[in-house]
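Format notes (please read before filing issues)

Several people have asked whether sequences and structure tokens are stored in separate files. They are not. Every record keeps both together, in the order shown below: the sequence lines, then the token lines. Line labels are part of the format and must not be stripped during preprocessing.
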Amino acid sequence: MRPKSRPASAPGPGTARGPACVVLAGGLGTRMKSGTPKVLHPVCGRPMIAYALEAALALKPAVTVIVTGAGTHERIESALAPYKGKAKILFAIQEKPLGTGHALLTAVKELGTGFGGSVIVLNGDFPLIRPATLKKLFRLHAKDKNALSLGSFLTDAPGSYGRVRRDLDGAPVRIVEKTDLSAGDEEIKEVNSGLYALEPEALKLLGRIKRNPRKNEYYITDILALARRAGLRAGAYAIATGEEFAGVNDLRELGVAEAVMRGRLIAAHSEKGARFLAPETAFVDYGVKVAPGAVVHPNVHLQGATTVGKGCIIYPNARIIDSVIKEGAVILDSSLIESSEVGKNAQVGPFAHLRPGSRINPFAKIGNFVEIKNSTIGKGTKAMHLSYIGDARVGRSVNIGAGTITCNYDGARKMRTVIEDGCFIGSDSQLVAPVTVKKGSYVAAGTTVTNDVPGGSLAISRVRQKNVKGYVRKKRKV
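Then the structure lines:
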């Protein structure tokens, strides 16, 4: 008997309320060998569950339920807090790890009896899933008026995936786990992805799933056979490659997923006009923006909310975190920039360190082994060698000599140094904050500045030089 389609009166795809989405994230992740919940391990700078959640939200669901474990709930909910204002998100706690079927039943209980629409189910360890793939399954599910649909893919190496067994008419009848394979099942190349679309009449079958005797868990995969026995219409659709459905279960698989995602991100930037000279060595986080015309050299790390402007050049081994690099700026080799801003046509490096709160204005130059912290460096100012500028405001066209230090910390408090426009700070100078060097002043090399310097003045605090004649000859006789 041919399975019946969903009755026309039953709620389903296309209802005004939209579907519900369920993201399964209750697994313990013991194979990760980590204290971090599996789905919170980062892939290109964001938790892997964020990719699955955003794919689900692309369907504009009426509600999304995230199923967590009892021991991981608080951390997962906290990590996903930014999404709460964007969509209706509920959390369901699976108190005991009793399998995917039990997890989905937990989510359905959270939805309540008032929800009567379609439910889309995906795994939280699907960082490579694309929103278009979910939309495609949902569209086919609605078109064929199925009570149950599953996403599948074709592979010559099925491995541990459950095989999709079909009848002579081509309709899916059962998902066969690797441990349950019978003669002939080994030849099946279509496997279950773990992505499902279900109607209320299929969801009612969750209570009929029996515990697997080997693992003492309830498998969601058993619902296909139950649906067939109940005479419900089911479909299986090979809608993507296995890459999208590659779950992350250990650190090796995490590395593989991250490499794939990194390649996608870099390819997207390249298509828009950014040039990566060795894309296989670049590390780019999700959310980083690289403008057309920018050039990124080998082994560069762009992390967090970093933005790289048009025409910028980022030389090898630079690491830039949560920073803005404006148009035409150049970051030379082996520089570290954290939560800072580099202005148009400015230059930083090589071997420079911009610590959080630094702002380098246009055409300024920060050179070798210079550290800037929580400071503003004015337009056209140069600090080229071996200096530390902390908690300071440096004006325009200032020259900071080699070895200059702003002494900003007295052991209890951080204090400010101000160097106004057009000043010249000689090498090996120390400016003991709080202190101001006013416009156009000079500080002689080797000077320790402890008082404000008036505009247009010279500050000098050297010990008077004394030459002792004959000292070396007398020393050698001793």
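For reference, the curators noted about this record: Residues 251-271 form the longest helix (21 residues). The chain has a mean pLDDT of 93.
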